[in-house]
Amino acid sequence: MKKSLALIISASTLGLAVPAAAQDTDSTFTGPRVEGIVGYDVSRAGSSIDDEFNEDNDQSIEGLLYGVAVGYDFAAGGALIGVEGEYSRSTADVDVEDGDVENFGLGNVDTGRDLYVGLRAGVLAGESALVYVKGGYTNTKYNLRSATGTTEFVTDLDADGYRLGAGAEYAMSENSFIKLEYRYSNYSEGEIDFPDDFPDSDRIDLDTDRHQVVVGYGFRF
Fold first, then answer.
1. What residue stretches are annotated with the Outer membrane protein beta-barrel domain (predicted)?
2. Cα three-residue angle 154-158-163, rounded to 5 degrees
3. Counting C-beta atoms within 10 Å of the first and last residue's C-beta, which end of the chain has fewer, N or C?
4. Domain range holding 111?
């Protein structure tokens, strides 16, 4: 009888706790949101094209990432599920110096726009904090420049891949929040977009890794 009573009390406590958690999540972290982001961005040649024989060759490009994101989150049994999209750009670039074309394996490169759409799932970590994981599809462009005298020929490498990430979000109020997030992207396919009337290339295999650490500030409505 005592065991049955203990089980009933435990079940009742859990039944009260889960709706309470769901209510807290719903009131603080759900609904539409918009945010600005800024952070560190580095793209690097993947393992299949690393220059393992000469570690002095810099096969990465680094810079400042900045952009905007929108999303919608809703509570699901004490957890949070959301959809989100993002547009960002980066200052990361590299130029060939003294004939060295090892940098990033592509020569003169500027990082273009980056698009992302995906899902995230999180749980509460206190009354005002949320920890989450995310994943989805990403498409980016790298501007490939080949300078000849005073003429510069520019093409775009249009790359597709996936993104995984994790982060923490803190509610500063019912309508504003800050977050810290790490994301890893891998681009495995792409095509060369030529300018003017030249046709685009066929799909090609790629191996490019991208690491980003960002902070964000946003609002919920």
1. 10-219
2. 140
3. N
4. 2-220
